[in-house]
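Bug #77: duplicate submission created two jobs. Keeping one. Sequence:
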Amino acid sequence: MAAPLQNSLPGPRVLRFGVFEADLRTFELRKFGNKINIQRQPFQVLAALLEKPGEVVTRQELQQKIWPGDTFVDFDLGLNKAITKLRAILDDDAANPRFIETAPRVGYRFLGAVVTAPRDAAPEKEPDVPQEKSSPATSEAVSPIPSAENLPPLPRSRRQWPIYVGSLLALIVAGSVLYPALHEKWTEWRGGTGRQFNSIAVLPLENLSGDASQDYFADGITEELTTDLAKIPDLRVSSRTSVMRFKDAHQALPEIAKELKVEAIVEGSVTRIGNKVRITAQLIDAGKDQHLWAESYDSEIRDILSVQNTLARAIAHEIRVNLTTEQEQRMIPASHVPPADAYEAYLKGRHYFLQWTDEGVQKSCDSFQQAIQSDSTYAEAYVGMADCYTARASNGLLKPDEAMAKAKEFAQKALELNPSLPQAHGVLGTILLNYDWNYPAAYIELQKMADLSPNNPEAHLRLVSYYHAVGEMDKAAEEAKLAQKLDPVTPFVCSSLGMTYLFAAKYDDSITEFNKCIDLDENFPWTHWGLVHDYEAKKDYWDAIEERRKLLLAGHEENLTEEMMQIYKHSGYSAARAYAVQHDLDPKHNSSFTVAYANVELGNKSKALEYLQKAYDERDSQMIQLKVNSLFDGLRSEPQFQQLLQKIGS
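Kept job's structure:
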């Protein structure tokens, strides 16, 4: 067993604080000399804090002292329960502590004054309540209190009714004041936290396996739990992309909640030893930084999906979400459970895919294929393969016609296996939109994803693209705002509204939205790309060249930046722009659509139309922008451009 914490005061003793005293030898806690029932672990935690008053005692120190490090023990759950019990016993408040203060994600500090008392010292006594003295006239003969049957009858005067009404009103007012507190206590007694939360974030679960290579497993469980909670329509759940930026962040929970704009936080850990897994989760009222509920789940890897679902439903219960029968059915785990090796391969695939790199995409394809080889009926793995092939087309790793045909095949197979899989509907809808240009069929699939997973920002972003394609910009803006509400911290999500306003030629609104995104990530390239074209449209060339400079720096093209600024200084904006876009004119290193757009910027209409035709022949997904993208307004009067518009989405 690890060595205990060192005592700051020597010898067995009684420590006093306020009206309490703790006997460290007998493990007794007394209040006004009366013994209080307390379990051993909460007392040990209290003792450790009392020994270092005013200092932060770290979670690691408490773990070494109270929980042996060589056993499979749920330390987080045990410590949080101990602190919760101590606060209840001491009548302490986590939000406004008198005794135990939380140092977020670090440990705890004892705030009160602590004094050492001899073991034989008399305990503090509860102060006497002073009694009201009798007056001399009444002290000699005290009349007995009459019984109810001896009381004289009450007069029935009408003058009494204001008293009755006043008393009734007083009771009503008192009831209205006391009801929230009483209702909360009643709800706690029945089960649940006593408060309904409308928004929640699942922070990245900590990998406590002692093996960094298992990070993918903890991240995968985080994503799966987030996905399960996102099935609840009335609960806003922060996306996985939003929360991953807080992985390993030493930031106070109220600050994280403020950034994510949520009321409640779920945090916890995943411990894996061989085929055994323990998931610990705790629910926290983010505004008060107060622990509301904690639980631990042990299972074999083969049962992990069922455990995740049980955890999601437990959280829904604790935050007082009322689920309809249909919603309950959605949260029931699928009858098909993949083998452990297939599930692990799938989690690895998601881990690699979300790295958003060419190498990551390739590794994810390999992992998803491995999952399918292990279980040919694993629907989620087929969705992963569909995502892989669409990403390969977007990144230029495969030609669109080759990649999208395979992606569509995988998506349809996934839906054949599980028709209620939101992501399968989403990826199929995107293929129908971007490649087949079958807008009616695409809408059905994309809306189905949003219906099945209303709290997934990705579902709304896919609908943004659909509404761009069909020219319904007001609806595109509505979906972009919904996505932002669900994911307020991811620059890509943020930029969708600015891009919508840019395409709709609402340049001032677009500038406002893009500037909000800069606050999230000043180096996000799409933000600066959008601002370049906003300022160009407003003929604000100084701000436009400044955004072009930032765009080049975001792309690590510092060598072009200085030269472009010199050209701007001596020859003006048009010359500087021509220099900046010259690398986009090379068809060997850019898509035909990119080359077409570069020629639009330079005013080369014939070349722009030539490469738009090539982009059409290649089924480039960006062609769906043509109907609404104001950047192509200079070509709209051209017959060839109109012909292309008629072919897309017809």
